[in-house]
Design brief:
Length: 175
């Protein structure tokens, strides 16, 4: 739904001025800041300034566009203009980077919280498994509790009882 057709938003007075896309302008400022912040830019700028000074100092005055006698006013103006635009663009790029860093720090904090919660859960699970394993009967426990002589004696008694019962059954059947 277009903003004009949305009746939930009150109308605002029309503003005259420049309208621009904040994100596109921010990306532009970041590209400028990335360029201005390199050693390559500083080297090229230094060569350009040296060439400018040499051109306006060595060549005849009729060929000079920024004469040395006037104090290189045009060079000063160009560098001042560059600085006046570069500083706000670099600050804008830093602010955008700070926003991204803040967002990334928040994401990292949430991931760390989830990781800590998962780690604590796994630690509790491992502890419960250890407790469960301490209650399990081991082979040694079975050996200790089941003595072969006792089992043989119990089986012998059981065999005697079964035999006496079967002999009684035979006697009853004969009657």
């Amino acid at each position: 739904m277009k903003r004009k057709e949305d009746l939930a938003i009150p109308r605002q007075r029309r503003r005259f001025g420049v309208h621009y896309d904040n994100d596109a302008f921010g990306q532009f400022s970041e590209s400028i800041a990335r360029t201005l912040g390199t050693a390559r830019f500083l080297v090229w700028q230094s060569f350009l300034i040296i060439a400018w000074i040499i051109y306006n100092f060595v060549l005849p005055e009729s060929w000079q566009f920024d004469p040395w006698s006037r104090g290189l006013v045009l060079l000063t103006l160009v560098l001042s203009l560059q600085a006046s635009y570069a500083a706000p663009l670099i600050l804008l790029a830093q602010n955008r980077q700070e926003g991204r860093d803040r967002t990334q720090a928040e994401v990292d904090r949430r991931v760390a919280e989830r990781t800590q919660a998962d780690t604590e859960f796994l630690a509790r699970e491992i502890a419960s498994v250890r407790v469960s394993l301490t209650d399990m009967v081991t082979t040694q426990d079975l050996r200790d509790h089941l003595d072969a002589e006792e089992i043989t004696a119990a089986l012998t008694r059981l065999a005697d009882v079964v035999e006496s019962l079967s002999s009684r059954l035979e006697r009853i059947e004969k009657r």
